[in-house]
Amino acid sequence: MRKLYSSMVLGATCITAAHATAQTVTIPIENPKVGAALAAIRADNAWTLSQQASICEIPAPPFKEAIRAAEYKRRFEALGIRNVRIDTEGNVIATRPGSGKGPVVMIAGHLDTVFPEGTNVKVTRQGTLMKGPGIGDDCRGLAVILQVVKALDKAAIQTEGTIHFVGNVGEEGPGNLRGVRHLLTKEFVGKVNYFISVDGTGLGVTSRAVGSNRYRVTYKGPGGHSYGAFGMPNPIHALGRAIAKISALQVPATPKVTFNVGIISGGTSVNSISESGAMEVDMRSESAEELKKIDGSIRAAIQSALSEENARWPGDRARLSVSIDTIGIRPTGAQTDQAYIVRAAVAAGKALGFTEPTGASSTDANLPISMGIPAITIDGGGKGSGAHSLAEEYDDTTTGFLGPQWAALLVTALAGLRK
């Protein structure tokens, strides 16, 4: 049984998961120091936005987050945190020690973007609106975390539990959650009681993990001239058969299951039978059982297409083969909205005057949820559009400060205030 800690009770008392579900949520919004921190966040909103914009102008393509990481480390240090380091995977970790009598809370924003090296990452600003690749996903989360660090220090808040503030690598697709995976399976094994990801814009709570399986499927053969070698199995024709079979699959609406062929490639010329044809396939569900089912159905379609294309040309000795290579696996897991961390997030939002529904998505929280660690992803405030596009926008509106206020209030509630 995993050990959990009450965020409202001082001491290292072990409680069961069932007890955690039954716990009464207490949000310390009436505490004078917490109130001072929230006021400081609102008054300092221009600083948060400047951090968001300037971070975003530092390129951080997948697997090349090092320059942004070094700068993020410098900014943590400038805020006065002494315990700051970059781990062997590239994650930036700033630790704010507690008394040792409360739970350990990790709050993280991801450093990486989906944009390739060479992308113009200049941010433009017009009033409350900012435009730039990654400005919401996840430059907003990174700025929110810096503001929380600054506000807690300014208000001289001390907590029972230790808080780890993190800028992690590898959240986006190619990264396959490598940053959080390293943190929770190597750096902090069994040492994190609550995990919070700050990712994106708005004021929503991602409480459930949408798992995903992603593969690169490649059909291969000898290839040849389209006229002279006609009559041999064709990898691209096999690919077409597979896509047609996948597109005809039926999936349940509840729990939601999705599939997609997102990229196809292959061929050398219009008059050549290609030596290869490839596709990249994505499938998702918050149900591990349904994800396994659609995975099996897609694999069956891939093999059936291979057999049919080879059988189409029985007189030719050439045979096709197929390989299925894993691009990424994001686990799902069982966590209900009655989990203490979810109820605490909702209660903290209500204390600030807003209520948003919980939902399911694919985020850094997938990994801890799959491991049985209470985890959520919260939005960073404001309004966003065009995520993962060059036209991405973030509008702070008149209430953008609620994002970092929410994160600060939730962290203090979970870690517990020192008495």
Q: If you had to describe this structure to a student in words, what would you say it looks like?
A:
The structure is a single chain. The chain is an alpha+beta fold and 419 residues long. The chain folds into two domains: 17-209 and 333-415, Zn peptidases (Aminopeptidase, 3-Layer(aba) Sandwich); 211-330, Alpha-Beta Plaits (2-Layer Sandwich), CATH 3.30.70. It has helices at 17-22, 32-43, 45-56, 66-78, 139-154, 178-187, 235-247, 288-312, 340-351, 366-371, 402-415; strands at residues 83-86, 92-96, 105-110, 124-126, 129-131, 163-168, 194-198, 205-209, 211-220, 224-225, 257-266, 272-273, 276-285, 321-330, 358-361, 375-378, 383-385, 393-395. It has an eight-stranded mixed beta sheet. The chain has a four-stranded antiparallel beta sheet with strand order 4-5-18-17, with no helix packed on it. A four-stranded antiparallel beta sheet has the order 11-13-9-14, covered by helices on one side. The longest helix has 25 residues, at 288-312. The protein is elongated. Residues 1-19 have low confidence and may be disordered.
- The strands making up the biggest β-sheet line up spatially as 1-2-6-3-7-16-8-15
Query: How many helices in DSSP terms?
Result: 11
Distance between termini?
Answer: 29 Å
Q: If you average the pLDDT, what whole number results?
A: 94
Estimate the global geometry from the Cα principal axes.
Answer: elongated
The count of domains is 2
| Proportion of residues in extended strands | 15-25%
Rounded to the nearest angstrom, the radius of gyration is 24 Å
Question: Would you tell me the structural class of the helices and strands?
Answer: alpha+beta
Any low-confidence stretches, pLDDT <50, length ≥5? 1-19
User: How would you name the CATH homologous superfamily of the largest domain?
Assistant: Zn peptidases
Order of helices and strands: HHHHEEEEEHEHEEEEHEEEHEHEHEEEH
- Strand segment count: 18
**What kind of sheet is the major sheet?**
8 strands, mixed
Percentage of helical residues? 25-40%
